[in-house]
């Protein structure tokens, strides 16, 4: 019976081990499901919607193949479709059985699109030649755009794979249980062998035999061979015991993976996608999405910084046009013109590619879009730079409209909304604040001209205003005193051609950028007298002397915090950038 028990135990043990191994090999299910298609149309763009990407659970592996360049990017669905615009494109879907991708041509009026590489709309992008593979795990509102170069047909071989849960949670218990049962079977087998040896021989009493005559003793001859202790049968039995032990040990080690065990035995849970955090929206209120995400903004700032650094070094205004416009472009372009004549003239403040400390995107699903940010350089001795960036159309890049140095110690009262919520852009004539944004530039200009006696002085915090010490009332008096008696210096203020930009901040306040132009006119007051420009005016105008006089215009980019009308707080100048933007002879 002991041998029978051992044999039965061996059979069950090897059966459990064999089935546990089979679950991981010949009986294992596929680890992914794949759907693909060959796009029959020659449209230059293909769009894979989020519905298609999330047709099955799990991270998506996307493979795109084509004869030439292969480019893919993903972004918010509304941004992707806005970039596609009126161009014809292939809408990639999936069949009802979720076994194959489908393609439907959406006809448009355009057959070409711009080169999509480096667009500010993309959350991420990929580019290779002929074949491209990447992994994504997109939320519901994200789509993928597929392009070659914008003029040739989009790559036509598309494949998406989703992972399948092919875990075998009972293979581990089967392998380890089978191994333990095998050890038990070996124990029973050895027990049976031991019992058999003890019970070997006849059970009846053997008859007495006559005594054999005693022989004389002798010494056996020595031999070189030493017999193995226990004989061959003993050695073979030990080997029989060692092989299963090694087998069980290897099986036990192979069963350490969590995929081979039930969840209640590992204390874990099945892997699942982690949803992206979303902002809490008040009940009954639907907010538009922020213009950019923080990763997008970091890429945008890095690109702007690279363009500015290259243009500043080369003193090339044409390079600036791809990333600058409005007041920021006007000031830098004039600075370049002066520096080409006078290399000692101070260069404009660099746009650092440092840490993005403040991010306030406009809440907008349409264009133009605006975002405000403050960038801190890695060199802590250099002041932070505040940028107001605007994207005019889906296919254009964000450009710097305002670039101001942040005032030392300046703080945003109450702070700004989180980057994943953003803020609305408010109209110039809104009456929610101490002063309407449309009146802000000229009100500040009146303080520059009249000092503390200005009617607007009571609205502004003038104690910590560094700009007034440079261009304010007292400074203007000094400049007038330096003009020869044969000439007269007069001033005028006006709104610059830049657009006022107002973004709401916390505590019902606003972040506002405005553009003020200061005009300095120098005229002779005596017959035959002449005016001799100096410094930057001379370099920019090219005039060494004139009897007509000169007019110089200075551009002031101003960044303010504007408190709500109900607040007792004052308007604070957060940052500024000022410089000569034009100089010429009077007609």
UniProtKB/TrEMBL annotation:
It comes from the Bacteria. The lineage of its organism: Bacteria, Bacillati, Actinomycetota, Actinomycetes, Micrococcales. Residues 201-222 have a biased composition (Basic residues). Keywords: Membrane, Transmembrane, Transmembrane helix. It comes from Lacisediminihabitans profunda. Residues 201-230 are annotated as: Disordered. InterPro entries: DUF8094 (IPR058407). This is DUF8094 domain-containing protein. The keyword Transmembrane helix applies. The chain crosses the membrane at residues 174-196, 239-261. Residues 289-584 form the DUF8094 domain.
């Amino acid at each position: 019976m002991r041998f029978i028990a051992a044999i039965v135990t061996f059979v069950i043990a090897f059966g459990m081990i064999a089935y546990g191994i089979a679950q991981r090999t010949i009986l294992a299910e596929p680890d992914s499901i794949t759907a693909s298609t060959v796009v029959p149309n020659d449209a230059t763009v293909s769009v894979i919607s989020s519905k298609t990407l999330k047709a099955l659970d799990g991270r998506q592996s996307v493979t795109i193949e084509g004869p030439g360049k292969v480019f893919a990017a993903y972004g918010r669905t509304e941004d992707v479709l806005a970039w596609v615009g009126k161009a014809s494109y292939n809408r990639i879907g999936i069949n009802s059985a979720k076994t194959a991708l489908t393609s439907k041509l959406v006809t448009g009026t355009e057959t070409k699109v711009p080169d999509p590489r480096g667009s500010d709309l993309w959350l991420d992008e990929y580019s290779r030649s002929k074949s491209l593979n990447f992994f994504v795990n997109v939320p519901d509102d994200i789509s993928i755009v597929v392009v070659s170069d914008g003029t040739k047909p989009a790559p036509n071989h598309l494949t998406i794979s989703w992972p399948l849960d092919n875990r075998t949670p009972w293979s581990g218990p089967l392998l380890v249980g089978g191994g333990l049962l095998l050890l038990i079977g070996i124990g029973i087998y050895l027990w049976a062998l031991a019992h058999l040896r003890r019970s070997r021989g006849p059970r009846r009493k053997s008859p007495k035999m006559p005594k054999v005559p005693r022989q004389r003793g002798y010494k056996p001859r020595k031999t070189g061979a030493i017999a193995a202790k226990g004989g061959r049968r003993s050695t073979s039995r030990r080997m029989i015991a060692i092989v299963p032990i090694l087998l069980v040990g290897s099986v036990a080690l192979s069963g350490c993976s969590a995929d081979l065990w039930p969840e209640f035995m590992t204390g874990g849970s099945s892997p699942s996608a982690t949803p992206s955090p979303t902002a809490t929206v008040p009940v009954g209120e639907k907010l538009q999405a922020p213009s950019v995400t923080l990763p997008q903004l970091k890429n945008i700032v890095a690109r702007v910084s690279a363009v500015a650094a290259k243009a500043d070094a080369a003193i090339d205004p044409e390079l600036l046009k791809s990333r600058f416009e409005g007041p920021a472009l006007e000031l830098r372009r004039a600075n370049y013109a002066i520096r080409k004549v006078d290399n000692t003239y101070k260069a404009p403040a660099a746009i650092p590619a440092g840490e993005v400390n403040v991010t306030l995107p406009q809440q907008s699903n349409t264009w133009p879009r605006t975002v405000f940010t403050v960038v801190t350089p890695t060199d802590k001795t250099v002041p932070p730079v505040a940028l107001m960036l605007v994207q005019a159309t889906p296919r254009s890049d964000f450009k710097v409209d305002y670039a101001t140095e942040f005032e030392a110690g300046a703080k945003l009262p109450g702070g700004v909304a989180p980057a994943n919520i953003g803020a609305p852009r408010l109209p110039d004539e809104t009456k929610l604040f101490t002063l309407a944004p449309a009146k802000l530039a000229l009100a500040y200009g009146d303080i520059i001209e009249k000092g503390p006696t200005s009617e607007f002085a009571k609205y502004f915090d003038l104690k910590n205003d560094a700009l007034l010490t440079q261009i304010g009332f007292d400074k203007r008096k000094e400049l007038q005193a330096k003009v020869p008696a044969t000439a007269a210096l007069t001033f005028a203020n006006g709104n610059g051609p830049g657009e006022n930009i107002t973004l709401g901040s916390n505590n019902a306040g606003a972040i506002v950028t405005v553009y003020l132009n200061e005009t300095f006119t120098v005229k002779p007051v005596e017959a035959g007298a002449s005016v001799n420009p100096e410094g930057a005016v001379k370099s920019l105008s090219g005039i060494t002397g004139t009897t007509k006089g000169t007019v110089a215009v200075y551009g002031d980019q101003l960044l303010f915090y504007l408190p709500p009308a109900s607040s007792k707080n004052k308007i604070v100048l957060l940052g500024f950038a000022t410089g000569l933007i034009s100089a010429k002879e009077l007609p």
